[in-house]
Amino acid sequence: ARMQVESVPLAPRLRDLGCHPAGLSDLQAFLARDDLLAEVAALNATGLTEAERLELTQLLPRLADACERLAEVALPPMLVHPDFRVANCVLGDMSVRFLNWADSFVVHPFISLLRLLQLDYPEALEAPQRDPVVSAYLSNFEGLQTRARLLEALRLAGRLFPAWTLMQWSRELSLLEPGGVSREIVQDTWVAVARQ
Hints:
Elements: H1 2-7, H2 11-16, E1 20-21, H3 24-31, H4 36-42, H5 50-72, E2 78-80, E3 89-91, E4 96-98, E5 105-107, H6 110-120, H7 132-139, H8 147-175, H9 181-195
Parallel strand pairs: 1-5
Antiparallel strand pairs: 2-5, 3-4
Helix pairs in contact: 3-5, 5-8, 6-8, 8-9
């Protein structure tokens, strides 16, 4: 979190170096795409069921509303590790090194925390206001917002996390050759995230 806060003035330079911007406006544009549901359905042989398509259609306006409400919390985009989890941390005597920065992007900072919680501390998602990992992380942002606003932002970011993930997988999918094994894996993951 401290590294993320320190990255704010570096965001333009990080984008120039290849960190993908993936801000709330990018997410809103992604969710507003006319072809989004058709793309999800076409990605694998089974696609989404009619009930899943209807559910996703009804969910999209609520996700757009969550984007707007999260933007009101006014945390600037920051450097985000796309696979931030314990397995990508190496503890030294007095330091921690973070591995696997290849697909870093500049986005709402809580995406990193949500990835960590989802993979390594899922119980923290049930009561984030009492969790020590969440508390330590959020303490770095208290100069930017109140604790109550930060917890609200975390809740909203949690609702948007699958949509952000879908947007990132969509970007990956666009870079892969049709018919390849990697593309099939990404396609299956894309549909699984859409179902989430």
